[in-house]
Design goal:
single chain; mainly beta; three-stranded antiparallel beta sheet; 2 helices
Length: about 70
């Protein structure tokens, strides 16, 4: 499986958290979503991004983020 390069804020909008938000941030081993963190009883940590263009789920280790 190839790595997916995300090279800035515009290309970042293509990818969402499991709840469809684009306010996610990468961490060392997973992702974290700011909007999810504001909803009670919702886990803001997750391990796969959804590519809105293809519907594919991308594991953290397959995503490279620049800029």
């Amino acid at each position: 499986m190839r790595a997916h390069d995300i090279d800035g804020p515009i290309s970042k909008w293509r990818y969402t958290c499991p709840n469809g938000h684009t306010s996610w941030e990468p961490t060392n081993s997973h992702f974290w979503c700011h909007q999810c963190s504001r909803v009670p009883e919702t886990n803001a940590e997750f391990w796969k991004l959804r590519d809105r263009k293809t519907g594919e789920l991308l594991a953290r280790e397959k995503v490279s983020i620049h800029g």
